[in-house]
Specification:
Blueprint: E1 2-3, E2 9-10, H1 80-89, H2 95-98, H3 107-122, H4 125-141
Antiparallel strand pairs: 1-2
Region (Disordered): 28-74
Biased composition (Basic and acidic residues): 54-70
């Protein structure tokens, strides 16, 4: 503690963090306030950027065994009742044998087969075409 001329006591405080020994530098950015179009464009407009003809390209179909869109990646909540119905239904589904899977059929396989069966048998022809068009469009966007 030190006393000043008036007799007041003052504490000698030193900073906790020492100042940097590096020089402080200021940076000036040219054109920070330049928002206009004052800069002249030296290239003619037709030579600026080549415009590519964009033709709609269809994505090639991928083999379903390799297609990531066919792989079950999302968890769905199924009630025990629905799971029981699927398990009891398995022996009665002849199409499961026709799938020739080298593994046990999953719930995903069964639900996909049931949806396909419903679409092909229960939906009228005009709705079926609409359904397939919408499905194919959304499937390609996945």
């Amino acid at each position: 503690m030190t006393e000043n001329e008036n007799g007041d006591k003052k504490l000698d405080l030193s900073p906790l963090i020492s100042t940097s020994t590096l020089k402080r530098q200021t940076v000036k950015v040219k054109g920070t306030d330049d928002f206009g179009r004052s800069a002249k464009n030296t290239t003619p407009p037709n030579e600026q950027a080549p415009v590519l003809d964009k033709l709609p390209k269809k994505a090639p179909r991928i083999d379903p065994s390799e297609d990531f869109r066919k792989k079950a990646t999302k968890t769905q909540k199924l009630s025990p009742d629905v799971i029981l119905k699927i398990e009891v239904l398995k022996p009665y589904i002849k199409e499961l044998e026709e799938l020739n899977l080298d593994r046990k059929p999953t719930v995903n396989d069964i639900v996909a087969m049931l949806v396909d069966h419903y679409v092909n048998t229960k939906i009228p022809t005009r709705h079926l075409e609409s359904y397939k068009a919408v499905y194919d469009n959304l499937y390609d966007q996945l």
